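Hey, I was hoping to borrow your eyes for a little while. A protein chain has come my way and I'm curious about its shape. Take your time with it, there's no hurry, and the full record follows here:
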Amino acid sequence: MWLTQLLERNRQCWPDRTALVDEERSVTWAEFHDRTLELARGLAGLGIERGDRVAVLAKDRIEVLESYFALARLGALFVPLNHSLAEPEVAGIMERVGAVAVIGESELLDRHPELPASVRMRLALDEPAFAALGSPGGARDLPQVADTDPIAVLHTSATTGQAKGVTVDSGSFRAIALGWLVMARPTDGIVMVNCCPLYHGSMVVSLTYLAAGATVVLMPGFTPQRALSAVERHRATHMWLVPQMLRFMLQAKGSHHTDLSSLREILYGAAPMPLDVYADAVRRLGCGFRQVYGMTEVGGPFVTLGPDEHPAPGDVTARIPCGRVVPGMSARAVDEAGRQVPPGEIGEIVVRGPGVMQGYWNDPEATAEITLDGWTRTGDLGFVDDEGRISLVDRTKDVIIRAGQNVYPSEIERALMTHAAVRDAAVVGMPDEDYGEVPLAYVALEAGAEADARALLAHVAKLLAPYKRPRRVEFIEQVPRNPAGKIVKKLLRV
């Protein structure tokens, strides 16, 4: 089984190399391997069996990954939970997957006193009893887990509705990791600061670099100061973040006094990279950039654009391409009938390959809806060029149809973001008697900046055709985004 083999091989190759670091401690590959085995035996002793679903409710820390690997070793399915969810949302996920146990931090567990009847045990990973689980003294046989056995239920980011449980096996993790590493060509001595949470598909990036023997630095939550400090303190070579995080880091006062010279590559994904942020980062950091395009349903990161393919900031006119699929995966753009469209023509991006999920947990109808002739629908509109590079235009559900013409909100958002006073922007459709639907723009201004709706509309009028221009501009303090950096447009629609 892939995760078990990963640990065994890395223990053999680099037993004394640091595998994981958090704000409390660090562990070597030998310690990570041994603790995972102990924990798997301890959990088995408590009655956790193959096929059981175990929720994990914690901020990023070493014990989270130890729990994931231990549960996978048992053939139990780990179910990461977003710790910012409300009590009914957490209970709903646990009930839908039939969780038999929850592992988490004491403070977070205390926020959820009422859980479904299926949950028969709570384990606080920051208490002594958890650390004592599986202590040497009693060996226990563990099951043989195949790569085709499900080992996790990862939940989508739910920007348009209720989060869906994505069932994945270790074969998916292996396929994505090996394909990704062929493209990324990792060198020895990688230290990666992970700014993204371990409770959804973005964690696959960390698993992938762990497979290559990298050291992964975990943080209990992102703040610009915490991320800057982690890079300097650990002499990090890589960072994994979303573009908004990079913007906040560059704006932080401490960024000018922090030694970031160790950085070789910044991995970014989940949302388009604003061109002003990219230009500023290139100028100030002098490192390479790698775009990550992924989707939980297809195994996580399945497309990348490496540093050697990133354009110079002055050469970017509209968007930076996402890149090419990793070896083993396939993608194409199709029309509404599922027919592949010619290179350069916009269609929905569909994907297939060994990284694709087994299906949504206990939801065959939703699984069938996202499947098209053996391909998995991403819901993203984009095109593939003659050299296989994918560029995204928008989400299929976000497209505004104005009198029969397609208007892509992301294009309007990019135009608004070129105004010096605009910090962030989101565009949604609003009903219109004459045209059916027209664009409505929500704008958050830079601190201390001044601009009125008329000035912004005049600005985009120079950049966009009349049918693409917003009908109205509303000012808000902050554009709602989820932890992955994606705009939560369901909170803005009228």
Q: What stands out?
A: The CA atoms of residues 23 and 219 lie 7 Å apart. The chain has a mean pLDDT of 91. The chain has two domains: 1-396, 399-491. Residues 399-491 form a domain with the GMP Synthetase; Chain A, domain 3 fold (CATH 3.30.300.30).
